[in-house]
User: Fold this.
Amino acid sequence: MNELRKQTDVVNAQLARYGVKFGIYKNNEFKEQLFPFDPIPRMIGKDEFEYLNRGLIQRVKALNCFLKDIYSDCAIVKDGVVPEEFIYASSGYLPECKGICPPKGIYSHISGIDLVQSKDKTWYVLEDNLRVPSGASYPMIAREICRRSSPRTFMEQEIADNRDYADLLKAVMDYSNTGGINVILTPGRYNAAFFEHSYLAEKTNSVLAVCNNLVVEDDYLYYIDYNNTKQKVGAIYRRISDEFLDPMTFREDSLIGIPHIMEAYKKGNVAIINALGNGVADDKGIYYFVPKMIQYYLKEEPILNNAPTYLPFYEKDMEYVLEHFDDLVLKDVAEAGGYGVVFGNSMTPEEKEKLITMLKNEPRRFIAQEVIDFIDIEIQEGDEVVPRKADLRAFVLTKEDTVVWKSGLTRFSRNPDSFIVNSSQGGGFKDTWVLCQ
Amino acid sequence: MGIMSVSKVNHLLWLGRYCDRVFSTVRRFYHNYDTMLEADKEAYIKFCNRLAIPNIYKDKDDFVARYPFDMEDDNSIISNLGRAYDNALVMRDEISSETLSYIELALNTMKQTKEHEAPLIDLQPVLDYILAFWGCVDDYVNDQDTRNILKTGKYIERIDLYLRLGVESSEIQLVVRKLVRQILRTRLPYDEDALDDLIIATRKEEVDTNKALECLDKLLAGVM
Assistant:
């Protein structure tokens, strides 16, 4: 490991060489910056990974069942397990998807499940990302570069190879493909995750497309070649949000969508990866119900824990939240990327009063969670090794079976006093090693 | 041919053009800079005029510092390299990360150059990286049409620059022959009359520069 640590500058220079960047908008200006990489990996032992593997597969299976149910019979609502307010009031619920069954019945092909580990080594799921979870490309390329920079490290350690992500992703696209080429749809060069879009297109041998390369005719999706030849698209891994995907169905002001793609999708003529409408299942409010979904659909006890969560929507929970306000973290369900997260004990009396009023007026809009004192992991800062908060985004891929990628994106906070690890807020990333023994 | 949209063809052509604009102007800058050391301190003015670059430079030293390295100057070498990068970045899936990395390296090298005491030494790695880029195009880009389109862009740019700089006709004819071979392989819709006229305009010892430049403009007007 010391050998690899000594190569930090070499690794970072290589990451710069390959343009491993993400974009951010500051003051309406687009800036690309390198994603700071820390060479000390997060290590997950074989048994621990086995446990996570079982728990993550179980969770994603249940979430896929939930999505299928919500857009068909809604049995889980009828049976009183999930209140309908949490479905129909969710911004991620798309009534336009009611009755549509995506090819092969898969909704969440690529799921990004965010976990943290508490100081007693218990893993908690913090968030499910079932729309367009990003980040797999970073540990993928970092591993390649670390192996080049410090081969001895990898001779001495038995680590599961994570460079199969592109193969897994391609298999997912091929499995759902309705006949035609695989396309990765990017909003374009100025999207925060453009590096990932183009890198995954290269590695999966897919065609990287922007909206004006694609057209729907007679309810089929086509890629228009330079000589005006139409190539049928069988699977589209879209890296844009639902609301921008089809201006004829959703936001009519979208300039990055494909008019009428919804018609092709409805008829089963193209697989959209991930399916439209998944936002209803990764809503922070719905998160509370995931353990109940596992019991309801799979008749199993949840393997992985949710962070202890309260829904002010329920009177009993509201009382608890008000009573223990200072001990809780409050999350606005409409926000993402680390925004809309406040710690009760860090608020001024005025801020607290304002938030409590909002809680009372819009209880559905917030969840409250116990603050998990998650473990610090080591990062290198100059010549020193310092502890920082970190999470883990595990990637779970679904085709005929569901598999967990033997790696993941470990994001850490560079600020010693912060729990926020998002890259858009200055966080860095690490590779995640799954040990073979 | 790989599956490619018109916009991708356009990016490839311009990537080829901007790479060669950087490469060829750096080489010409070498010659020009060397001349300016003692003999002709105002050689840069002729250089600007020939390339139709506005002479915004105060003097020779200002030109030497700004023409290669000033990102605010739209005509500078680094600005052209930035345009090559913009076109390359969106073509990663076609040209490969390995090939793209040489443009990234060239741009990072230029950005990191702070002092300009010896610009010819500072610019040497940029030439090396661009040559490595073209080497990668041959070895890492599997699709032959992608390679041919890139090289078509490269030769169009080189002829354009050579015409403007008044390079000897024999050198221009050599590049025209390369362009003809390349463009025929691309299967792009090009203007056949413009290609014939370009060959005629550059065949003579006294090249018809205006006519040749006009032909170059028409050659791939449909995709560029």
Q: What stands out?
A: The mean pLDDT of chain A is 93. Chain A has two domains: 2-300+374-434, 308-370. The interface with chain B takes residues 16-19, 181, 189, 194, 198-199, 201-202, 206-210, 212-213, 223-227, 231 of chain A (CB under 8 Å). Residues 306 and 345 of chain A are 22 Å apart (CA to CA).
